[in-house]
Amino acid sequence: MTVFETHNAKETFQCAFSLAKEARAGQVYALSGDLGVGKTVFAQGFARGLGIEDYVNSPTFTILQIYEDGRLPLYHFDVYRIEEVEEMEEVGFDDYVCGEGVCLIEWAERIQEIMPEDVISVTILKDLDKGPDYRRIIVE
Predict the structure, then answer these.
(1) Domain assignment of residue 89, given as a range
(2) Which tens digit of pLDDT belongs to each residue from 64-92?
């Protein structure tokens, strides 16, 4: 387990950027944290760390955004609106998880039963006692 502490969005972005530099094809990152904790900022930094220049936003309504212009493809899922885990079959979840890119899955706990075993868990937590922009990022 590795713990990072960030004090603003730029540091959260940089943390994710650094993690992405080490990412390998086939890895799955499960990103969890409350609404407004910075998952999208993390995803943006992660994408940039893969060399992706496109604008990255949370695919809340589309479930999946694919970015292929980096050193590895990024399959960015947001499963917040998933009601039944079977919906993931419709977007080809297994093909992406077993694919040649990296999966970053926001709200992964909602589809826990279909997640692969060797997931890299990233939890982002706030601590208002340490400031409104403080984040504790736990990578396991």
Answers:
(1) 2-139
(2) 999 999 999 999 999 999 989 999 988 99
| Rounded-to-integer distance, Cα 8 and Cα 53, Å | 22
Q: Which CATH number goes with the domain that contains 52?
A: 3.40.50.300
Q: How many domains does the chain have?
A: 1
Whether the pTM exceeds 0.85: the reply is yes
Handedness of CA 122, 92, 115, 118 (dihedral sign): negative
DSSP string, 16-57: HHHHHHT--TT-EEEEE--TTSSHHHHHHHHHHHTT--S---
Residue 137: closest CA among 1, 20, 36: 1
Residue 36 token pair: 């407004």
Q: Per residue in 27-71, pLDDT tens? A: 999 999 998 899 999 999 999 999 999 999 887 778 999 999 999
